[in-house]
Specification:
The protein contains 15 helices and 11 strands. The chain is α/β, with parallel strands linked by helices. The two termini are about 25 Å apart.
Length: about 350
């Protein structure tokens, strides 16, 4: 895929600025999709960099995983595994981590104190240094951190967490502070030692109709940690990208006050991206907003039409990076993913002509 790479211009866009360039973005692309795209296995950071570059992205996202997410050597298992058959790339059922709905691994202060909390100073960041060595000079590295709020309720189990907000508020507060401190220290190290070009925090706090818990609790227990992370990003002058599914209108001013520069994925069924841009203007960049269900099950023509429609509606507002409304999972056929990328490329090459139509 031919593309002019310019991470500095992408950075300007993520800060909410206007650009003459179109910068596509994804938080995650499943390994099977990446391997199908490349036509070869991904066994090292070399192939990982190769995918993001050849697919036309101006960055490589690298996940630091703690608290049982996405499985690596830093993992502490707090999830359960289930088998699914939805992959478009394999007939074999595959395991996925799944949240514990009832009780988790921390429900008392005794369990809190006995939990094997990870030491943020011992998290291995060498993958970032390896990536930097292999990186073409015109693209950047984004440090991806999952999560704070989600980690807290997964540690407790969502039902237990919900009850504990009333019955054990001190325990909930202690877990928020512990998780927040660990993630904050990891982000400090990413900023200082790995010298990443942006921070992307994934932390679902909402569903389609609104917030998962009350605004006041988020302001008390969660947003102070977001603000600390935002301060790190401001000091380094790197974009602070935030991922949460659902309807976030109620907390948009809080998120902006925390220093968040870009919002992902702006689910079309939960938030109107045009209204969001009109109301918050250059305070926030939008990433994504191309409906994942259509990407997964629609025709090539559906995807081409949808992608161009999103770009036409959002491009003139500035601060928009097209991509899926969640991530490119292994239930998205390769041809559909390519249809989105090709449509973005077509818009990129024909902006002035398309805008006149």
């Amino acid at each position: 895929m031919e593309k002019n790479f310019n991470f500095l211009d992408l950075k300007r866009t993520l800060f909410g600025g206007n650009s003459k360039m179109v910068h596509q973005m994804e938080l995650m692309v499943d390994k099977e999709v990446k391997e199908a795209f490349l036509g070869k296995p991904i066994n090292s950071i070399i192939e990982e960099v190769d995918f993001w570059y050849k697919a036309g992205y101006e960055y490589v996202p690298i996940v630091i995983s703690v608290f049982g997410f996405m499985g690596d050597n830093n993992n502490i298992e707090i999830t359960q595994e289930k088998n699914f058959k939805y992959s478009k790339y394999s007939l074999t059922p595959q395991k996925r981590s799944w949240a514990r709905e009832g009780k988790g691994v921390i429900t008392t202060f005794k369990e809190f104190h006995n939990f094997p909390w990870p030491d943020p100073e011992k998290i291995d960041l060498s993958i970032y240094l390896q990536a930097r060595e292999k990186l073409p000079k015109e693209i950047g590295i984004i440090g991806v951190i999952p999560r704070i709020f989600v980690a807290v309720w997964m540690l407790m189990g969502f039902e237990q967490f919900s009850y504990s907000l009333i019955d054990q508020s001190e325990l909930v507060s202690a877990i928020f502070n512990k998780v927040g401190e660990i993630q904050y220290r990891i982000i400090c190290r990413l900023s200082q030692e790995a010298d990443v070009d942006a921070i992307w925090l994934g932390d679902d706090i909402a569903y389609g109709q609104g917030l998962m818990i009350s605004h006041s609790i988020l302001k008390s227990l969660l947003f102070p940690w977001y603000k600390e992370i935002g301060n790190i990003c401001k000091k380094k002058h790197v974009p602070f990208i935030y991922h949460s599914d659902g309807n976030l209108f109620e907390v948009m001013n809080d998120l902006i006050d925390c220093g968040i520069n870009a919002l992902h994925p702006v689910e079309p069924n939960a938030m109107d991206a045009v209204i969001l841009k009109k109301e918050f203007g250059n305070y926030i960049c939008i990433i994504g907003n191309i409906e994942l269900d259509i990407l997964s099950r629609g025709s090539i023509q559906d995807i081409e039409k949808l992608t161009l429609s999103r770009l036409k509606k959002l491009w003139d507002y500035g601060g928009y990076c097209p991509g899926s409304s969640n991530s490119i999972s292994n239930y998205v056929p390769l041809e559909n993913y390519l249809a989105m990328l090709n449509s973005i490329q077509y818009f990129r090459e024909n902006i002035e002509v398309i805008k006149k139509d």
